[in-house]
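Problem: given the chain below (572 residues), write out its structure.
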Amino acid sequence: MKITPVKGRPMLHWVGKRAIDKVNYYPAQLVETYGIENPQTSPTYQGFLEGPNLVFQGDNKEILSALLVQGFRGKVDLIYIDPPFASGADYVRKVALRGTKEAVEAEGHSVIEQTQYTDIWANDNYLQFMYERLILMQELLSDKGSIYLHCDPTMSHSLKLIMDEVLGTDQFRNEIVWAYTGPSNTKQWFPRKHDILLYYGKSDNTIFNADAVRVPYKEGSAIGGKSSLSVSKTRSIESRQARMNDLVAKGGKIIEDWWHDIGIGSHIPQSELVNYPTQKPEKLVERVIKASSNEGDIVFDCFAGSGTTAVVAEKLGRRWIVADLNKGAIQTTMKRIQKHIGNSRGIAHYRVNNYEFQVEHELRNIVIAKYGVETERNDAFFDGSLNGTLAKICDLTKPLTRLDIQGIKDELENRPDEERDITILCNGSEIGLQSELATENSRRPINKFVVKDIQRDGVTTYAPAEANVEFKRDEDKVTITVANYISPTILARMAIDRTIFDEYIDDFRAQIDCVLIDTDYNGEHFAIIESDVPEKKSDFIVGSYTVALQRPDAVVAVKIIDMLGEETVVTG
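Solution.
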């Protein structure tokens, strides 16, 4: 698929900068639905007009490509994104089991930390990452559309130059400062307590609803006086009074481009908190959506995170599309939005290119810990060092291939002074590959390849959860009982031996986050007919459900999602 050239002149240069002239297309695969019948196998714009709102999991570059191919070019009215900030940190959520006010203590581990996404970038990769995606996003925007890019002072200066190039300097609207308060331990500089929202339009027809973002004047302020209207001394008192009355009648003034009236952290209402890192308040996104879209317009967020954009767009009557790479983010969004959709359009959840960041990241963490790899974040290719060698962790979801080896050799060509051997950590390998490497090593004076196969070394990286679910049919209904559940992953992460499981966890339901039921499972996608999503973290799932059957021979499926996001489907 061809991409039109960017609009402005190049403003910023970095190593490896390149515009997109074409993108690869991967068809979307339907995974899950809620509140709809007969979903599209692959979503199209025409189907979206009367169909459900959309949730995508996958690399958002590929999702943007899929949307462009399927007819969404020039159709999106508002994009709000809260992407990684290039902060140099991993963002984790702390997971405690259900039913306890305090986290369970087990061998010194009070909670489980689970990485949601990593914000560590080598060299100029971050700039290229954002550049490519912004080019695709501007292709999606309608003529009346706009984009808000949420960032912080770390990269806001560079991102503004990129947006100037992609969207045009003439379409810059505001650099909005979102100021907030909170604790800070720094003694080296002033506490950093603000984010930036870069606001650009697509054209001169960009929507801006001024009356939707008016705020009251502070009590006692001199409306029409020097402090607010700065009228000249020659203007009559009657004129000033008339303007004052007009502003009061409209509900106050238009909020300026510094927002200090929306909190963060502990100021997020308890009803919104989903224990997701970098979660933003609904009021912040609400202001953006009210200002730059109308009821029925399409709102898009391809860094969905905790799903705030979807929730607010749903409440305000907008159509919406959200996407995220992280499976945990998608699960959080799906679970959260079900509480708000009522009798609306429903949801269709698709996966693009079948990429599972969470699985791969968990495998890597286990391997790093088991072998003692000393990680190096400033190396764009190798993962760190191990016993004096360079360590490379290959894709652990598939066997080591000759193409992987060639990639390492190509990298070493660019490092002529590197004399260390290379330790390759992998999960199996192509037939005959290791013997070939042994022969090659005999001829290599330096940079010998040492392969550590986690399968041969007996490193256990994954064991599926075990669920005991009972089904009792009675004519046109079925009673489903979740009788037991054990997650080896949760036990391992909390260092609990399975033989003493009951000593630490009184109720197995403490491991379960939610239960979903499909009363006519087709084996291809999961249609959520009933859901048990406890309101509070201290609440357990009910565990027993009686639901109606559409037909006596229908296959009933139960999806159990545990506190680490592992999904287990049982049919009966």
